Amino acid sequence: MTDIALIEELKTLLEPGKVLTDAASLDAYGKDWTKHFAPAPLAIAFPKSIEQVQAVVRWANQHRVGLVPSGGRTGLSAAAVAANGEVVVAFDYMNRILDFDPLDRTVRCQPGVVTQQLQAFAEEKGLYYPVDFASAGSSQIGGNIGTNAGGIKVIRYGMTRNWVAGLKVVTGKGDLLELNRDLIKNATGYDMRQLFIGAEGTLGFVVEATMRLDRQPTNLTAMVLGTPDFDSIMPVLHAFQDKLDLTAFEFFSDKALAKVLARGDVPAPFETDCPFYALLEFEATTDERADQALATFEHCVEQGWVLDGVMSQSAQQLQNLWKLREYISETISHWTPYKNDISVTVSRVPAFLKDIDAIVAANYPDFEVVWFGHIGDGNLHLNILKPDDLGKDEFFAKCATVNRWVFETVEKYNGSISAEHGVGMTKRDYLGYSRSAEEIAYMKAVKAVFDPNGIMNPGKIFAP
User: Fold this and answer.
1) Helical segments of 113-229, H only
2) From the CB of residue 184, how many other CB atoms can be counted at a distance below 10 Å?
3) Which of 38, 77, 117, 119 could form a disulfide with 422 if both were Cys (CB 3.0 to 4.6 A apart)?
4) CATH number belonging to the domain at 97-215, selected among 3.40.50.300, 3.30.465.10, 3.30.70.20, 3.60.15.10
5) pLDDT at position 427, please?
6) Domain boundaries 336-445, CATH class
């Protein structure tokens, strides 16, 4: 069957106007935030119901057409890129909050609900959805589940999987499964819900999710602290963790801060220039708690771990301090950064970063390197910025040649080549550095059960 005939048949499965083939739509919906692969989808399909999703999946099985899920397309691993004539299944029209249970503190929603939409709904109900990151205003819950999104609150609240009470999924066969039925306790065999969380759409599509909510935090307060070197950041983390229950602990380099400040959107936290900065957040529920934070700050200064610092005194100042960290990714995107999203256990972070930094310094002497990340949970973001006079393909090729040494170091420390961005296509060739050959074989076998014809997000996670 020709491509034109395939598209015409696909149109009969959905409502009028819900299959797009114009060049602008193919480009917009065929990519995510990565720039490694050119989008080349066959068409963009917009289902509005579970039944329509099932129909599209069965059609794809019949004609052996690959399907790529599309949410907010804010991913950083090319997991939502359609580069080989696949049909993109976009969930923009499956974007409703369906039900709320105040006793169970759960929200049942469609996959196209935007993260910020769920956060706002929880706030209206006097509750809190804690999974948060810079792309919360455009990322969708289905995509968050597909990548097991983390973000800035993991040290306190964990990853997305910690907040998924139940799922409805359409498998690669087109079957509809209801997983876990929103139960807190359920000891009835395999928890297949967990298989779909982080699977990047390779097993099937999430078509409905029940998300847990938490109590609202009280008087969130942030501190930004400047340190003389990276080695001082971990003692600062330990000092504050001994006294306070932190909701976040982030770090960024002076180069990252300089890029954000150059935008002119937010003021510098203080006048002292420092090589590294830590941003921590806690609930100042009492004056004593705030006093304890200040006393810990003074202790860190006395120990030489901190050169200067500031603590938010208002909601606006809290937002401004967070912008110093949250604006980094968007700001450096101008330089087409080559990103590595790597992690180790927290105790191994100092030695690990020294080894990685030595590799970077030796191999990228002429490139600008920006460090930041969720260091409180062992997650580091290494960003190498493309020089203006270097072509994209040549730049990516230079970066890729050093990946082997970077990932060998990750393997040495029993870490992960992808802490929160997923594998997609950008990390699939390096999966063996974090997973054994036996593990990968079992993962492929699991995929074959749910997706026997290999139509679900083909070419992602596993190298073709």
Assistant:
1) 115-124, 141-147, 154-157, 192-196
2) 9
3) 77
4) 3.30.465.10
5) 94
6) alpha beta
Q: Where are the extended beta strands (E) located within 284-421?
A: 308-311, 338-343, 368-374, 379-385
In the chain, the percentage of residues whose pLDDT exceeds 90 is: 89
What span, in angstroms and rounded, lies between the C-alpha atoms of 277 and 265?
A: 19
Element (H, E) at 20: strand 19-20
Q: What is the mean pLDDT of residues 219-238?
A: 97
Based on DSSP, count helices (H) and strands (E) in the chain, helices before strands.
Answer: 15, 18
- Give the list of residues 6+ apart from residue 353 with CB closer than 8 angstroms, or none: 230, 371, 380
- 220-224, 238-242, 367-371, 432-436: range with lowest mean pLDDT: 367-371
Crossing angle between the packed helical segments 315-326 and 254-263, to the nearest 10 degrees: 120
Judge contact between 137 and 114, C-beta under 8 A.
yes
> Which structure tokens are listed for 259?
């890029």
**What is the pLDDT, as a whole number, of residue 225?**
98
Distances (CA, A) of 295 to 239, 242, 392: 11, 12, 48
Out of 22-26, 264-268, 365-369, give the one with best mean pLDDT.
22-26
How does pLDDT run across 101-112, given as a tens digit for each residue? 999 999 999 999
Identify the pLDDT of residue 419.
94
CATH class of 220-329: alpha beta
CB atoms within 10 A of CB 316: 9
**How far, in Å, CA of 356 to CA of 352, rounded?**
6
Cα–Cα dist 45/50, whole Å: 13
**Does pLDDT of 464 surpass 80?**
no
CA-based R_g, the chain, Å: 23
Mean pLDDT of the chain: 95
Dihedral sign for Cα atoms in the order 165, 170, 173, 176: positive
Edge-first strand listing for the sheet containing 164-171: 97-101, 106-109, 204-212, 164-171, 176-179
Mean pLDDT value of segment 315-320: 96
Q: Out of 3.40.190.10, 3.40.50.800, 3.30.43.10, 3.30.930.10, which CATH number does the structure's domain 3-92 have?
A: 3.30.43.10
| DSSP result, 341-355 | EEE--GGGHHHHHHH
Cβ density class 7-21: b for 16+ within 10 Å, e for less: beebbebbeeebbbe
185 CB burial (10 A radius; 0-12, 13-18, 19+) = exposed
